[in-house]
Every structure is written in C-alpha cells, then in structure tokens.
Design goal:
two-stranded antiparallel sheet
Length: 215
C-alpha cells in the first residue's frame, strides 16, 4: 500500500515539474523569439496611421496647381491631391461662348487629370474686340464672343452710298467694307428723253426742262 502511494506521489511531482519547466521554456521563447511577420506592418501603422490607411499626400508631394482634400483626422496627410477646379474651371468642352458657340482660347495655369486638361483662363480670340455701338452695327450678328464682334459696319438704316453725292452738312460714316457713307444724299437727276435737249445746257440753276430742238 505504502509502495503504491509513493509511486503515485512521485508521478504527480514529475508531472507538475514537467509542466512548470515547459511553461518557463515557453515563456523564455516568447521573450526572445523573432517577432511575427506582421509585426513591422503593425509598428508602421502605429507610427504612421494616416499613410497606412490611404492618406498619402501632403504639401511635400502635392503640386501647387493641385489641391489637397479629405484630411486624415490623426495627422497632416490627405487622401486626395487633385486639380483645383475652383480655380482651374475651364477645359476644351466648356471654353466656348454659350450663346454663339464661338470657341475661346484656354490659357494661364493648367492641370492635367484623368486625361483632361484644366485651365485658369478662357478668353475670346483677339479679333473679337469691337462693341459696334452708336452709328455702327455688327456685320454678322451671330458671329460674336462675350458680346464683342470682329467687324462693324455703318448702320444701313442711317447711312447710304450717295451716287450723286451727299447733301450739304450730311453726316459721314466710314467702314472698311462699304467705304464712306452719308446720312443724306442728293436726289437723282432725271434726264431728258430720246431726241430731247435739256434747257440746263443754256440756263443754269433752272428746273429740268426738256425740248425738242427744231430741225
């Protein structure tokens, strides 16, 4: 009986001693073993949480013609670095006169994004610089840009070409298409019929009168 009890006690002590040594061995391995393969990523994520979650942009790597947006709550990094469309409003699609359809010129600071070039300025071509006011009207009323025209002519309702010359004190108007035009023209003289002779040949400043000379 005593022998069996002794054997049981010895087995019990050996079991617990082995368990104790195993625990310490494992504990030692824990403290000196190589970190898990994800350890470096976890450390980087802890040190730079913004970059690890998709916030890559800052003032150092976002060009001046682009705009930072969607800020990381844990640092000075942003998710987006895109063209500043509040400043660069114009592209090949919208840089036209909305009414006439005349294409304008893109200029100034530019920014390319997703295959589209955006620009700071959208201006009319140089030839569209005339207002055509007063005695002048546009030569072509549908060819304009920002309410400016490329060519003005004298208003045909006010000025005329005078085949017989202008009246005294008539107002003049000149344009490169029609030349000089006048507000009032002299009346056209009525000539004599076939075989008739004008009395103006003999008397000056007389009303036109005609007669048939005697044979």
């Amino acid at each position: 009986m005593k022998k069996s009890y002794f054997i049981f006690l010895l087995a019990f002590l050996v079991f617990h001693l082995n368990a104790f040594l195993t625990f310490n061995a494992l504990a030692g391995v824990y403290f000196i073993s190589k970190p898990d393969t994800n350890y470096d990523y976890i450390v980087k994520k802890y040190e730079k949480p913004c970059q690890a979650t998709g916030y890559f942009f800052s003032t150092l790597n976002c060009p001046t013609n682009k705009k930072l947006s969607v800020k990381c709550p844990d640092g000075d990094f942003y998710r987006l670095c895109s063209c500043d469309l509040e400043t660069l409003k114009y592209n090949a699609t919208n840089c036209v006169d909305e009414t006439s359809g005349v294409k304008k010129l893109l200029s100034g600071i530019s920014c390319d994004e997703n295959g589209v070039s955006y620009y700071e300025k959208c201006t009319c071509p140089e030839e569209y610089s005339l207002s055509c006011t007063g005695d002048f009207v546009p030569r072509n009323k549908v060819d304009y840009c920002d309410n400016k025209y490329s060519l003005c002519v004298c208003d045909p309702n006010k000025f005329f070409k005078c085949d017989n010359g202008p009246e005294v004190n008539a107002k003049e108007c000149f344009d490169e298409i029609n030349g000089t035009m006048y507000s009032n023209c002299k009346a056209k003289k009525v000539g004599c019929g076939d075989g008739e002779v004008s009395l103006e040949t003999y008397w000056c400043n007389q009303a036109l009168k005609c007669f048939i000379p005697s044979l």
